[in-house]
Design a protein that fits this description.
single chain; 400 residues; TIM Barrel; eight-stranded parallel sheet; 30% helix
């Protein structure tokens, strides 16, 4: 028990079935003795669990959306992800995009070679590869991909939407034959859910994507399995929640922790610029509700997207937040704030694997409530990278 007594507590309630948020006059009055799940509400409506969790052991998580880049810098960013995650879905938007199974296998080999010797030797880290969908993609290539044990999905970028997306799709109907083959062969499509029309406001890109691209696609190819990547709006949350089981969504730490004000605190903040761009507070709250709802349709995908400090702090800065350094600890903070720590494991370690038809991991990680300071910068090849929340405190620490 902590400094709870210093707070002015208005109501207690139990979050577990069959109590269903029934108000309690005293935290220990839950007749089912769900004491660890009793929450309270204070004057400013902050919620917290009554019994504070100080350590939390989880099945080792998977990051279902990650940018590892290539060359020198890969070793640096890999060290962060391998510490926390057993498997990662690797994005294919390299300078020269990964468009074939052969290229995906080469890329995978270079990732394995960049792992530290002990992780390589223990076979503890498994990069799950994806192909980049271009209008030149063939049905034959899809067949090769679906027969490979290493390719797990195909990534859709609207042309011009984000980093290295020039080879992306200009009109979705151009790739329909390939998408039909993917549906037949049960290869999921991972969608960067935005439109790029210049007349659409940048904050509306995701909502219009649902209307113009996703919804017709779900109707026209009903068997295609889709991950709506890095969702940022209430529109996306509602659409996924109400949609069929073949649709799921990933959620990033920055879209849980920041709203769009964070782009302009005292000046322009390039390290908070990512795509889809941060949204208004009502949208952030909807995304938090989705992540902490316990629905298997929402799972962890950091979209950690490293760019050098110079590339971010520039007259035309690149999009991407580097969250891989302490991603799981950032998610823990969000789940703690909403008194949902008991749902973190399923979000981080079960639902993604289940959607991809992979076994859940065997190992575990342990997080401790322990404040530390996120470094100001990290090595990134010859340059530096500024991690998410650089120089600020982090409230959870993964035990080494
Ligand atoms: O912010 C982003 N950065 N969003 C993306 O979709 C791509 C990513 C990157 O690769 O830099
Ligand atoms: Zn991404």
């Amino acid at each position: 028990m902590t400094a709870l007594l210093e707070l002015e507590i208005l109501t207690y309630f139990c979050t577990q079935a069959p109590c269903h948020k029934q108000k309690l006059t005293h935290p220990e009055h839950c007749i089912f003795k769900h004491f660890g799940y009793v929450q309270f509400q204070t004057k400013d409506s902050a919620y917290d669990t009554l019994k504070r969790v100080e350590t939390l052991t989880l099945t080792k998580p998977d990051d279902m959306h990650l940018h590892l880049r290539e060359g020198d810098v890969m070793r640096d960013v890999l060290a962060d992800s391998t510490r926390q995650f057993a498997r990662v879905i690797v994005m294919p938007n390299l300078k020269s995009p990964v468009v074939s199974t052969e290229q995906a296998l080469d890329y995978r080999r270079s990732i394995i070679e960049s792992l530290s010797e002990d992780i390589q030797a223990r076979g503890e880290f498994n990069p799950l590869m994806t192909l980049y969908l271009t209008e030149k993609m063939t049905v034959d290539e899809i067949t090769k991909a679906s027969q490979s044990a290493y390719v797990h999905a195909v990534k859709y970028y609207p042309a011009g939407a984000t980093t290295n997306s020039d080879s992306g799709v200009t009109a979705i109907d151009k790739v329909y034959p390939v998408l039909e083959a993917m549906a037949e062969q049960n290869l999921p499509l991972l969608m960067h859910g935005e439109v790029t029309d210049t007349d659409v406001d940048v904050f509306d890109r995701e909502a219009i994507f649902i209307e113009k691209i996703l919804s017709p696609l779900m109707e026209n190819i009903p068997d295609l399995r889709i991950v709506f990547e890095h969702i940022t709006t209430k529109d996306a949350v509602d659409y996924v929640r109400e949609g069929s089981d073949r649709l799921a969504a990933t959620i990033t730490p920055q879209h849980l922790l920041l709203n769009r004000n964070a782009l302009f605190v005292g000046g322009i903040r390039p390290h908070h610029y990512c795509l889809p761009v941060l949204k208004a507070e009502e949208h952030r709250r909807a995304v938090v509700d989705a992540a902490t709802s316990g629905s298997p349709k929402f799972f962890l995908g950091t979209d950690s997207a490293p760019h050098s400090r110079e590339a971010k702090e520039s007259a035309c800065g690149c999009a991407g937040v580097y969250s891989a350094h302490n991603a799981i600890e950032l998610y823990a903070e969000v789940f703690e704030k909403t008194a949902c720590l008991h749902k973190l494991e399923a979000f981080a370690s079960h639902y993604g694997a289940d959607f991809y038809g992979l076994p859940r991991n065997k190992g575990t990680i342990t997080l401790e409530k322990n404040q530390w300071q996120i470094p100001d910068y990290l090595p990134f090849g010859e340059s530096k990278i500024i991690p998410f929340r650089a120089g600020e405190p982090c409230h959870w620490k993964m035990k080494q």
